[in-house]
User: What shape does this take?
Amino acid sequence: MKQNLHTHTLYCDGKDSVEEMVLEAINRNFDGLGFSGHGNNILFDPCSMDDERESKYRNDIFSAQEKYGDRITLYLGIEEDSIGKRFSHDEYEYIIGSVHFLEKNGEVAPIDYSRARFEQILHDWYADDMLAMAADYYEAVKEVASRDEVDVIGHIDLISKYNENNAYFDFEDPAYLELAKDAIDTAILNDKIIEMNTGAIARGYRTKPYPHLQLLKYIQEKGGKICINTDCHNRFDLDRGYEDCLSLAKMSGFQEIYALSNDGFYPIKIEDWNV
Ligand SMILES: [Zn+2]
Ligand SMILES: [Zn+2]
Assistant: This one.
């Protein structure tokens, strides 16, 4: 099995067309490829898809399904932003729920846009209190994890995007871990799949996928479900970091990783993943 459900195209902030992504996935022996364009949040994220763009995105994927369906299974998904439009399974085969923005005192700001912007929010909104910022972030994750329509929680610890080498806080600070674990508990309670996501590796911010190893181990201990995704914005990153994901999952005690089929998500043994 080789599958990636978190991918972006020219319809949002990706670099390649749907067809280019499909051809590269076939070339790299993928069994399945899912598209998860950024759902409408146009007020705060100009890269997300407004309704007109979303309808073109859907049609383009339907055409690709017709054209390439005998060579690869293609899935129509969406990445729903915590503060953007909400979607349903009538329209999408799967929905990734993600927090990219924080809201405070009537203001909205992106936590993953750039290091400078991240630092500005941390300073101006939280007086450099990283735990206070993380608390607000994980509260928003919990809200997304409680939504019926969401199947997969996107990059659950995105708040640590710029924290390589413990730049802003200690990844293993018990007070921080408590906040993250609380969000993980909510995700597991609501039967959500938590993704391992290598997106920040491709963009040079991190050397390891989300979630941090401590959190991955916690998800395993609590009986949580995981999938592996690259959140790629470029077809050459379609399977970036997958080997690392498998070995980290194994190291954390997982035996199975979830994949999507036309009948929904199901577990596949780690040794049956061929990345
Ligand atoms: Zn995202
Ligand atoms: Zn994404």
Remarks:
- The radius of gyration is 18 Å.
- The chain has one domain: 3-272.
